[in-house]
Amino acid sequence: MGIEDFGGGQTAQSDVLVVTTNDVPGYHVQQVIGEVFGLTVRSRHLGSQIGAGLKSLVGGELKGLTKTLVETRNQAMERLVEQARSRGANAVLMMRFDVTEAADVGTEVCAYGTAVVIAPKG
């Protein structure tokens, strides 16, 4: 597995900027659209659970689970961007992730933030 299997985030081609900050340097907010989110729920795979249990006996990173979580977060982020774009936003401010257990059968990952329209400062 390469480093790209363990990371995420936007590509340079994205038309919706997503940041974890309250503002974007050099830009001002023209319009606040409101909260947007992208949600996905992943079930646990029995094989990965067994492998994780065995790995926990000796210690170390659970690479299969790490890769799955990265894929899950990226999917939630893609859905966040789709929702922001469909509502007319070109940016999402204060993006965060929330991860919770979903009824003991999976993991819920939610990417959320504030959809806005930004423009360069004149």
From TrEMBL:
Residues spanning the signal sequence: none
> Its domain of life?
Bacteria
Cited InterPro entries: UPF0145_dom_sf (IPR035439), UPF0145_YbjQ-like (IPR002765)
Q: Which family does it belong to?
A: Belongs to the UPF0145 family.
What is this protein called in UniProt? Answer: UPF0145 protein CP982_02370
